[in-house]
Design a protein that fits this description.
2 copies of one chain form a homodimer. The first copy, chain A, is α+β, with helices and mostly antiparallel strands and 772 residues long. Among the domains of chain A are: 33-307, Beta-galactosidase, Chain A, domain 5 (Distorted Sandwich), CATH 2.70.98.40; 372-571 and 599-632, Alpha/alpha barrel (Glycosyltransferase), CATH 1.50.10. Helices cover 32% and strands 25% of the residues of chain A. In chain A, strands 1, 9, 10, 11, 12, 14, 15, 16, 17 and 20 form a 10-stranded antiparallel beta sheet that branches. In chain A, strands 8-7-13-19-18 form a 5-stranded antiparallel beta sheet, with no helix packed on it. In chain A, strands 21-28-29-30-33 form a 5-stranded antiparallel beta sheet. Chain A is globular. Chains A, B: Belongs to the glycosyl hydrolase 65 family.
Chain lengths: 772, 772
């Protein structure tokens, strides 16, 4: 754990330059706009430790799978979002001496991520080996208004000399992925073009043949006034640049403005790509730096208007939750239903930028509440569009009749992962995808989603479950063998309670969904049934499984059993595990982890969280007490579910304690892995801890419920949500629940189980938390 | 399956040259002498498909592990016997035209592996593109008398011309392994030396720094008379050669004799290696080709004297069993307790030449009966010498107090394998190593083995089992979780019956062994107990586990259960599995295999085979009938155990049928994989099918038992065994059991349960098979 980020409500601030922290800061200060993103690498040359990262959403490379021992069914490749052309590069020479923070004496270094306005700023004074001293101020952002555009304003002021400053602004496409399986480069050159102030470089990905045109327009300013310049063009293999020299005088600020663009063949015709890039560059340069920055500020203001959380009395918490919200919106904006949310977003290479079940289980609830409905709908449509691939994937594993198994890890719908115990067996992901459909409709009321998209996906998923269970003569029940649950510290287990319960829920929900569509859109229903070659017998097959499924439980303890035989394990509690042996995933061999009772992340409890209405509080408490005591939370996705359940059980201290485990996970580099990138999807979990945990927000029967409490350490917290057209601002302090809507419509809300009527806004005195 | 090998009692014969079969024949016609070995590559240049292979026992390279997803505890490298310098190379030019069977017209091609005398012969006529025709006769062997020596006699007769023949005899060390994980070469150059008729090349392996000096001495003969020659030395990177030209006349036979040596730093001081090689070359060249070949013939005759099996009435079976015996003795001679038996011997790269539990479970019984006692003793001592590494290996996985886990795959005692479900969980191998000690003592009566070696190994193994089980409150028994049994089509299962039974057997046997040593050698026992820091409490801990171990079984069916929950699987029989879906390991995805009831190889039945005396015939039959029907035998190690049990159950047809599945596995290329190398360890299984199956040989209470039957298709079979000093030749025909010993000592033997006395030899009329 580290603690070098300065606490501030709206800004992430680093003061002083410590090269050892640089890769961590490169992750933390990352920028993105849903379409592209980058690590906070320096514009100027840096010979110290750095992980260069520029990423373009949806542009991926199928890297040949590396495997020790091949198993039938393994995918041939792992699709990964690849490191793209570096467009921020500005080599700086002062009197022929290269500016490099690794070789300069750096003072007054400050790095600021301004989350309110959406930009990154870096200020420092550098004394070069020659003794020449300069002050640098660099501002950078990825526009969320023009999401193909990135902007830099890089200013240098000579502090103790008059002399020549030389900028080489460049775009470097000769990059590679650190995680390349076979140390290959993934880009081929297509074309380039350089004028006095514009540069274009088009590259094509190998195999996938995506084309990306990266461009830049540069301006030179002296004391904020534009000046003419003659640049020298520099062309190398997959590299374009322009060199400009200027003679500066002491205390004169020389600025290079670089307005860049990244356009891809996903969104433009290849033949038209260069021309289109020229148009975008022309438009953006016409707006100019100040206008672009103003628009960025306004756009972020409107995002915050819909999504901000204000925490009074805890500045560290305030900073952290805004950081999480900010990074989530930098990663995914919901404009494009071909894109999704990689566990590291645009902040690193790990996990290949691919889609996991994190999206459905953790991110969908966040976007449902904080963004327009279309945003989460697009996350759902992403899977709908990949249904054919999910059916193919299931076929490869021996399923038929349109059974769909969505992949564990994917870019384009094809499975990328290759550990048999995950790839083939961690099939509960299929259920999370169905659950997200339910969650979306529950929150938005948009039942029509079923007609056009949802039902087809649900039928594919239920067909899979139907074939994946088998009748056990021994149990006289249906069983599901050979699975891995969310707790990946168990592999190839039988009858994972969570997976079993999720599977039958999927079938029940599919039957219900079919009835809804049949009723609302009979002819559309008929067409779908025909298209899918659906046989009514399938409903009865599902019903029979629903009625006769086996769910492991222990009657004595009154708990659901994580899987068959779980109680045969030596039952040790996490509190009795020596600190020196944790985290067990670093200290223990894999087999020891597997045969221990220790749980990586919510498993039975994930099921109880999903289906809490099916269980009484006493049951929830027994299971929570049993499993929480055995859970090591070695996934960043674990604590939030525990926090929400603890809050539900009125255990406020525990709820807060779990919330703390991920709230500042990256800002404080808890797990010593922030340098690899940020834990983007787990950030949504922190949001859930506050809104679903502390505020106890639920949607039941089309109505909002709250069951709030105020963490002891806070004075108040408030958050904004979108709910069925209303924009609500909800504030909870020690005594009251306050609500303010964006209009004066009637509102009916349940607080601690009591119905309350509001018109626009209102305030309710809080008594005790409801225990329902 | 193929059928191109010509049936012959003592020879393996291929007639006609088919390049498509070449890699298969290279495996089948492999040569070895326990110290070195090689595939049957051609001496002359060959531009067609070939897998070059020259191997030197015990000289290995730690190739960096390749893995998709790293798990804690995985080994860093896979030690593999590496492809060594090619010493057979003889480039042949006829009138400046290179002889290459891929570009010549080849007629009268014949390849013969003479198993009786232990050499490989190749005869062919080649018409070169120029029209020049030659006859070639090449004889080659690896001496089992001087096991550092290999010999070639390569003769050419011009058939239709007078002209120049040029030989370049060479040693080429610039070789690599096809299975290199990172496409690296493993050898560094040390030194070389070339004289007119001698050439020396010393290489050093990277990392492990073994040095190997490969040398050759050449002679030139015309019509079998030695002639003088002047050779031209050829030196390249890791390559030495000598070029000799001679003008031959039509029908004159020109022969190049090449006597080669391979000496390693395992057996000689590095500083002395070259000198020592010169001595060996001098000795061998003094003997000369004919003497060396004669000695080879005599040495093989004496091996056959101890081990031959004669089958009358089935030439294919006769050829096959001799082939299996021959290849086993080519692979392992038992002279060196640092060597072992790789599943492919010296015939290919697959499995890295490393040691598996195949040695203990399948090869030890073969060598016990067919070779001097020291041979199998050395196989046991191999493990004893690696005990420290086994203890380290267990420590890495979290065990302590001297617990030993022998590796799944190893060269020097360190684990090489890296699939968690095998490496960490297929721990029954530990039991097979203990069982081999028992088996050795049961067969030889050499209880003293326990004093010096056995008990220490047994204590390490029992300490492992003690820590590997845990008390299940739920079962009120000890359980063993997270294992993989011999049936690798199940992973990470709980309470594998075979492993559980083997574990408690190990503890029982260790207690008994300790009592024996304490009684026979009290002071040695005391020293050992002190050295191992052994506490008497450990005996009672073991006893408690022995008394309270859980063994899964199904009372209704009267069978032992392969593992917990096995009966929850869909119970389909192999006979009902469509042919198009077999072998399932090629047709099904891994998860489907795992959740099916299908069994790769004997598992419960392996346990029943090991401990048959503990079960009555009805129990054996119930288990056999149940499991055999579910076994797909997709391991070459599976059929022999089934054959032996079927024989025991008097099901002669089935016993024969299982025997057939591996008898000609490689000769007929059943699985289309002979080109990768031969299934050396499974060859011992075929021997077991005949001797333990058809002849029903057992050792009980220090006495030999037979329970023979004659397969319907045979007229008789006879085999030779060593048993406690006696050399016995046993013959079984349709009516009688005949025995002939090498001396006239009294012999007491049980046949069909009846005691019989012999003096030297005897004959017993056979009635019905005993069912006991």
């Amino acid at each position: 754990m580290k603690d070098y980020i300065i606490k501030d409500e709206w800004n992430i601030i680093e003061e002083g330059f410590d090269p050892h922290l640089n890769k961590i800061s490169e992750s933390i200060f990352s920028l993105g706009n849903g379409r592209m993103g980058q690590r906070a690498n320096f514009e100027e040359t840096y010979s110290g430790e750095t992980l260069s990262g520029n990423y373009i959403a949806g542009v991926y490379y199928p890297d040949k799978t590396r495997v020790g021992w091949w198993k039938n069914g393994y995918p041939e490749y792992f699709a990964k979002v690849l490191n793209a052309a570096n467009w921020i590069g500005i080599e700086v020479k002062i009197e022929d001496e290269i500016l490099d923070l690794a070789t300069s004496k750096v003072t007054d270094f400050k790095r600021i991520l301004n989350m309110q306005e959406g930009y990154l700023e870096r200020i420092f004074t550098a004394e070069l080996p020659s003794g020449n001293k300069i002050k640098v101020n660099a501002i950078r952002f990825c526009s969320i208004v023009d999401d193909e555009v990135g902007v830099i304003n890089y200013s240098i002021t000579p502090l103790n000399f008059d002399g020549k400053i030389e900028f080489t602004s460049y775009i470097d496409g000769d990059v590679k992925n650190q995680d390349s399986n076979y140390d290959e480069k993934f880009w081929d050159f297509v074309n380039n073009e350089i004028t006095n102030n514009e540069a274009y470089l088009t590259l094509r990905t190998k195999k996938t043949e995506f084309e990306v045109c990266t461009a830049s327009f540069i301006q030179l300013l002296a004391d904020e006034k534009a000046i003419d310049f003659n640049s020298e063009a520099i062309r190398k293999e997959k590299f374009v640049g322009q060199k400009i020299g200027i003679n500066a005088v002491q205390n004169q600020e020389i600025s290079l403005i670089k307005i860049a663009a990244n356009l891809t063949s996903q969104n433009h015709q290849k033949s038209d790509l260069l021309n289109h890039t020229k148009i975008i560059i022309a438009k953006a340069s016409t707006k100019g730096f100040h206008q672009l920055k103003l628009e960025q500020k306004q756009a972020w203001a409107s995002k915050w208007q819909e999504s901000d959380i204000i925490i009074e009395g805890d500045i560290a918490a305030q900073q952290a939750i805004r950081f999480n919200i900010f990074q989530l919106f930098q990663t995914y904006t919901g404009k494009d239903d071909r894109l999704n949310i990689g566990p590291k977003g645009f902040t690193g290479e790990k996990y290949g930028g691919s889609t996991y079940w994190d999206t459905e289980a953790y991110c969908v609830p966040f976007y449902l509440a904080t963004a327009p409905q279309q945003v989460s709908k697009n996350l759902l449509i992403y899977r709908y569009k990949q249904l054919d691939k999910a059916i193919e994937n299931a076929q490869k594993l021996g399923f038929d009749n349109g059974a769909a198994l969505f992949p564990m890890v994917t870019m384009n719908g094809e499975e990328c992962h290759n550990e048999w115990e995950i790839t083939f067996e961690e099939i509960h992901r299929n259920g999370a995808i169905a659950y997200a459909i339910h969650n979306y409709i529950r929150y938005t009321g948009d039942e029509n989603y079923l007609n056009d998209y949802g039902l087809e996906v649900l039928i594919g998923i239920s067909r899979f479950w139907k074939q994946r269970v088998n009748w056990s003569k021994a149990q006289n029940k249906f069983v599901m063998l050979g699975v891995t649950g969310p707790n990946e510290y168990e592999n190839n287990i039988n009858n994972n309670w969570y997976t079993n319960i999720l599977a039958t829920w999927c079938m029940k929900y599919t039957i219900k969904a079919a009835q809804i569509v049949e009723k609302n859109r009979p002819s559309q229903y008929k067409n779908l049934i025909e298209k899918l070659n659906f046989n009514k017998q399938e409903f009865s097959d599902w019903a029979s499984i629903i009625d006769n499924m086996y769910y492991p439980e222990d009657a004595d303890k009154g708990i659901f059993l994580q899987q068959d035989g779980y109680l045969d394990k030596e039952q040790i509690l996490v509190k009795d595990l020596p600190k020196s042996e944790r985290p067990i995933n670093q200290k223990w061999s894999w087999d020891r982890i597997l045969r221990s009772c220790f749980i990586k992340q919510a498993d039975v409890l994930q099921g109880i969280y999903f289906f809490e209405e099916d269980y009484d509080l006493a049951t929830i408490k027994r299971n929570f007490d049993f499993y929480e005591a055995r859970t090591v939370h070695e996934s960043s996705l674990s604590p939030c579910v525990h926090s929400i359940l603890a809050a539900k059980l009125n255990d406020e201290a525990k709820a807060y304690q779990f919330y703390l485990r991920t709230a500042r996970l990256d800002l404080d580099d808890y797990n010593n892995d922030t340098e690899d990138g940020l834990h983007i999807t787990s950030m949504a979990g922190t949001w859930m801890s506050i809104v679903e945990g502390f505020a106890g927000m639920r949607v039941r029967d089309n109505q909002l419920h709250f069951n709030p409490f105020l963490p002891k350490h806070w004075q108040s917290f408030s958050f904004k949500i979108n709910f069925r057209g209303a924009n609500l601002n909800i504030k909870i302090d020690g005594k009251s629940f306050q609500i303010a809507a964006n209009d004066d419509k009637d509102l009916e809300i349940f607080i601690h189980g009591q119905k309350h009527q509001f018109k626009g806004s209102g305030i309710i005195e809080l008594q005790n938390k409801e225990l329902v």
